[in-house]
Amino acid sequence: MLLQGKKALIFGIANDKSIAWAIARAFHEQGAELAITYAGEAFEKRVRPLAESLNAQAILPCNVTSDEEIKAVFTELGKIWDGIDIIIHSVAFANKEELKGTILNTTREGFATAMDISVYSFLGIMKEAQPMLHGRAASALTMTYLGAVQVFPSYNVMGVAKAALEASVRYLAEAYGAEGIRVNGISAGPIRTLAASGVNGFHNILNIVESKAPLRRTITQEDVARSAVYLCSGLASGVTGEIHYVDGGYNVIGL
Ligand SMILES: NC(=O)c1ccc[n+]([C@@H]2O[C@H](COP(=O)([O-])OP(=O)(O)OC[C@H]3O[C@@H](n4cnc5c(N)ncnc54)[C@H](O)[C@@H]3O)[C@@H](O)[C@H]2O)c1
Fold first, then answer.
1. pLDDT digits over 131-153, tens only?
2. Ligand 1 pocket check: which of 10, 69, 90 to mutate, most ligand atoms within 8 Å of Cβ?
3. What sign does the dihedral 149-153-155-161 (CA atoms) show?
4. Predicted TM-score of the model (pTM)
5. What domains can you pick out in the chain, each with its CATH number?
């Protein structure tokens, strides 16, 4: 087993379609111990039974807009774990009104919200995690999308946020690298999830990817999860600061 005894903290499970849920299952299969967070009371009902089914050792609330809630996750984990080996950040949000039309729909407030929840949260988590990552060959992984580097209809402010998230991966990789701690991102192809349902016309993107991607299919949550196992295991011991595409090869196609 590739993650035997590793302690993995996972942010971003909303339901059984979440990419983070497939990652949690794959980590569990590979022998990892899990701590799972949920975004707030509204999500607890769905997330708790999922987390319990994988014997998660902690199931904690964490709305990432709150510094106190982020801090509390590490305070609680410090009571049961002597450290953390893996952090999964699979969190994003933008107002629905800004995920339609063009980027000219963006408001100052909507921009700040998208950047706060989808980008700053990764930095905030990685800051608070420092004492528990210290001295371990730990790794962190976030989820991004090709909309960071190319234009997709309706992706708008989220594309800007993903570009900032990808830059954050590189800066975090440098900041943590001297300690042997790795930070990477997976750029996933489109998958039908709660977050994706907020993007206007998402089904068109799915159809086009299916016909154009070298693998001639869209990817699954499990495709992403298998790559996450690799990136968070010793198999990727020399890999950091990378954005790794798990998209059936779609990103290499020009026309
Ligand atoms: N589905 C896709 O097509 C796709 C493609 C590429 C990248 N991604 C990225 O993958 C990640 C996971 O998305 P998903 O597709 O699994 O959808 P999802 O809706 O299942 O996951 C998004 C998660 O963000 C969490 N979240 C939102 N606001 C939060 C807050 N304030 N505090 C804490 N958590 C909050 C939600 O609770 C949810 O668990 C996101 O970063 C998304 O942008 C998705």
1. 999 999 999 999 999 999 999 99
2. 90
3. positive
4. 0.99
5. 7-247 (3.40.50.720)
